[in-house]
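Q: I'm building a small set of examples for a reading group on sequence design. Run inverse folding on the following structure and report the sequence directly after it, with nothing in between.
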């Protein structure tokens, strides 16, 4: 295997040109701040490393209470969450990051690395979908922007064109009287930690009636899905135990197979429990005086 050639571009155009030249590998792997790709040489593929630590747009973090949060694709997700106002405003995101991996592997993981690996990205993708996140993409033809939900729906291998790459993720500022939470199935439930649910609620002035909801779920290795029927059901209703239970039932139907089985029923039950817990925790956080860090400690 030839020794890898390392490049340290300083502009987005240089990154796009290098990735486009890496025609031996249509979809480069991402590890922390580098793309791992391969270009065809006279004797076969030649590995290349494109290190983006010098590209300003991919290494920035910007936060404003009115405009929201922007995180570059080469920034570890643990970095903005060290800032208390960000951690409080995006508590659901802190939930996901805390569950994604362990130790240094979690703390050093970047947006590009996580979203490039579907198995690792679920704990991050569901909270981001609930928050209405979008991603900025750059490539040989310039800029484009899409929702993270749409990016996940396309699946690996079809989300980006040759030479395209993620530059940053953009989160809108949370609405007043809103709160979110992400829950992954506890040990002992079906398939270990294979079920996850995120909930983001916007409440009316009485803090009892839901005026908007975004729910995202996954089961096993399936792609993240919005629980649209459950979202519509919650809107305009007082969020009590019966309403939470029905929203859980509607969400669980998303993983119902054509043929019933015991394992399928257990999976649906685990998903319902996760959704109900996420809704209750999101409701608590939507109320003034909530302590997201305290919520996390009680998990």
């Amino acid at each position: 295997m030839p020794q890898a050639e390392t490049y340290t571009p300083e502009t987005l155009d240089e990154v796009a040109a290098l990735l486009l030249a890496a025609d031996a590998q249509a979809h480069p792997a991402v590890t922390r701040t580098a793309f791992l790709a391969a270009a065809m040489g006279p004797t076969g593929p030649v590995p290349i490393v494109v290190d983006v630590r010098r590209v300003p747009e991919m290494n920035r973090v910007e936060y404003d209470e009115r405009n929201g949060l922007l995180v570059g694709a080469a920034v570890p997700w643990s970095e903005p969450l060290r800032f208390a106002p960000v951690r409080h405003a995006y508590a659901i995101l802190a939930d996901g990051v805390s569950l994604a991996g362990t130790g240094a592997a979690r703390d050093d993981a970047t947006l590009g690395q996580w979203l490039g690996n579907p198995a690792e990205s679920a704990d991050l993708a569901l909270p981001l979908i609930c928050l209405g996140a979008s991603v900025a993409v750059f490539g040989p033809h310039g800029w484009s922007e899409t929702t993270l939900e749409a990016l996940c729906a396309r699946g690996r291998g079809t989300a980006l064109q040759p030479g395209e790459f993620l530059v940053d993720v953009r989160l809108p500022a949370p609405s007043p009287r809103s709160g979110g939470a992400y829950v992954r199935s506890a040990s002992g439930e079906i398939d270990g930690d294979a079920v996850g649910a995120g909930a983001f609620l916007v409440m009316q002035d009485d803090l009892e009636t839901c005026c908007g909801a975004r729910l995202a779920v996954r089961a096993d290795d399936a792609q993240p899905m919005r629980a649209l029927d459950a979202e519509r059901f919650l809107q305009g209703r007082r969020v009590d135990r019966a309403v939470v239970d029905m929203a859980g039932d509607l969400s669980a139907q998303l993983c119902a197979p054509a043929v019933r089985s015991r394992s399928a029923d257990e999976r649906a039950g685990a998903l319902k429990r996760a959704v109900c817990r996420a809704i209750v925790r999101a409701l608590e956080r939507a109320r003034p005086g909530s302590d997201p860090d305290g919520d996390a400690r009680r998990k």
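Residues 178-293 form a domain with the Enolase-like; domain 1 fold (CATH 3.30.390.50).
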